[in-house]
Specification:
The complex is a heterodimer. By secondary structure, chain A is an all-alpha fold. In chain A, 85% of the residues lie in helices and 0% in strands. Chain A has nine helices and no strands. In chain A, helix 3 runs antiparallel to helix 4 (97-135), helix 4 packs parallel to helix 8 (205-231) and helix 4 (97-135) packs antiparallel against helix 9. Chain A starts with a helix and ends with a helix. Chain B has two domains: 34-134; 136-225. Chain B is 51% helix and 23% strand. Chain B has three helices and seven strands, in the order H-E-E-E-E-E-E-E-H-H. Chain B is rod-shaped, with a radius of gyration of 50 Å. The chains are: A mainly alpha, B alpha/beta. Chains A and B meet through helix 2, helix 6 and helix 7 of A and helix 1 of B.
């Protein structure tokens, strides 16, 4: 009887999790549908009214993250070169270093690290901000004024996030390559022109396209998921829970999208 | 005013990365930022080592890169490689292109070389002949063949020296046997010499007796029946 009780509890727990997952999935689908429906009424919206929000979000998501992104990029570029210089043969590494940096930094780490920093900095802020606005009935007030809140809140954040992530990824790549080059000079001398030439040779337009695609996907995903969890809390107590959930699930989505894109284009 | 500064900062935040990316794309397309470029063609039979972006150099100095490779099917399959190079370097229309490796494991480069006798300058659209193809793979293949050949030679010498050693050993054995045979012969000869000397001594004694007899009674000796 006691064993049967444990089995029953386990089954119930599994059932609850599965139901929660699917109900969450369906709710997210409804949320996406409502966003797309809101975009239909974009033509009625004065873009001037969104300008300040886009500007402010861009400053917070992009401009304020430049220093952090630069430091992380510099360290990662240096780490890659240090590891390569230790593990790979010294002979001929000058022509190999460009390939290595393009392969690791530009293709994978650049977009991924940028997305992680943006998620942890801005994603959590977006969720917390929207959740607080909801608790203070600001969103209800906007709805009462007849303003499409999805359009007014989510759309400018998506635009700002896309623009910021594209700029940040480019900056990340440039700083990481420069950092990698400066560190590599401690071990081997590569003329700057030769280093640039190897990078240019190793980098293809396909890489550029994929980096853009990743940036675009992250730029859409991060604010979309974080806004969704920002709209969820019904009490002030739930705000940190949903903020944490927003960050974790956004990061998970970012990793999945990154793997999918790499799988589709490079495999 | 504060909003204006804020807008400028955000504007710069977008423009700087976009400019960096445009510069990168321009460089990737083979254009140079500091000098003007011209497009010339390289006619070559084999494009094994050449790809888009391969560096074009003169005396080791980077002057451009490969921007496209097109096959030409007639009269025989060959390739026209478009080289986007700086127009600041004087090149003759009779210059040649040598495809070579810049180091053992590095990418190939195209080295343009002017002929000794100067002629007309290279114009956009001119075709340069690829005269030589130094493949590091072929070179390594040759080195491999050479090493195999050297190994075979060393093995043969080893075999020969091994055989010779056996022959010398055999020869020494036979020499030793011959020496002992000679020694035996000499020993035997010594005994025979003593015997012969004895026989000779007896013969001489007999002759002496005959001689004495002949001296004493010559007629009797002669007429004796």
């Amino acid at each position: 009887m006691r064993l049967w009780g444990k089995i029953e509890n386990f089954l119930a727990l599994t059932g609850r999790k599965v139901i929660a997952f699917f109900s969450g999935y369906i709710e997210f689908q409804h949320y996406l549908k409502s966003i797309f429906n809101s975009f239909k009424s974009l033509k009625y919206l004065r873009l001037r009214s969104l300008y300040s929000t886009v500007l402010l979000q861009t400053k917070y998501t992009g401009l304020d993250a430049v220093f952090l992104i630069s430091v992380v990029a510099l360290m990662l570029g240096a780490t890659v070169i240090i590891q390569a210089s230790q593990k790979f043969p010294k002979f001929g590494i000058d022509s190999f270093i460009g390939d290595l940096l393009v392969l690791i930094i530009i293709r994978e780490i650049g977009p991924l690290a940028t997305a992680m920093i943006v998620t942890s900095r801005s994603g959590s802020a977006i969720s917390a901000e929207i959740a607080t606005q909801k608790q203070n009935h600001e969103i209800r007030s906007l709805e009462l004024l007849g303003i499409d809140t999805k359009l007014y809140i989510v759309f400018p954040r998506i635009i700002a996030s896309i623009l910021s992530i594209i700029s940040l990824v480019i900056l990340f790549d440039v700083v990481a390559l420069a950092g990698g080059y400066l560190i590599s000079r401690l071990f081997i001398f590569i003329p700057p022109q030769q280093f640039l030439a190897t990078i240019i040779n190793a980098f293809s337009f396909e890489d550029l396209l994929i980096t853009f695609l990743k940036s675009l996907m992250y730029g859409i995903l991060i604010p979309l998921i974080c806004c969704y969890y920002g709209f969820r809390p019904s009490t002030a107590f739930q705000i940190p829970i949903y903020v944490s959930r927003a960050v974790v699930r956004t990061l998970l989505s970012v990793f999945i999208v990154n793997a999918l894109i790499s799988f589709l284009f490079y495999l | 005013m504060a909003k204006r500064v804020f807008e400028i900062k955000v504007g710069l935040f977008f423009i700087i990365p976009i400019v960096l990316m445009i510069v990168f794309v321009v460089l990737k397309l083979g254009y140079s930022l500091s000098t003007d470029t011209i497009d010339v063609y390289l006619k070559i039979d084999n494009i094994k080592m050449i790809k888009d972006g391969t560096a074009v150099k003169v005396k080791g100095y980077d002057i451009g890169r490969v921007v496209s490779i097109e096959p030409v099917y007639q009269p025989e399959l060959h390739f026209l490689v478009t080289l986007r190079i700086s127009d600041q370097i004087f090149l003759n229309e009779d210059c040649v292109a040598v495809i070579q490796n810049q180091n053992v494991i590095g990418d190939a480069i195209i080295e343009l070389r002017n002929p000794v006798k100067k002629g007309k300058p290279l114009q956009p659209g001119d075709v340069v002949e690829g005269i030589e193809y130094v493949s590091i793979e072929a070179l390594l293949g040759d080195v491999h063949k050479l090493l195999v050949s050297v190994t075979d030679t060393v093995n043969i010498i080893k075999d020969i020296s091994s055989d010779s050693k056996q022959d010398i050993r055999k020869f020494l054995g036979e020499l030793s046997a011959s020496s002992s045979t000679l020694s035996n012969i000499l020993d035997d000869s010594q005994a025979d010499v003593v015997k012969t000397m004895g026989t000779l001594r007896q013969t001489s004694e007999t002759i002496k007796e005959i001689s004495d007899e002949l001296k004493k009674r010559p007629l009797k000796f002669l007429l004796k029946e």
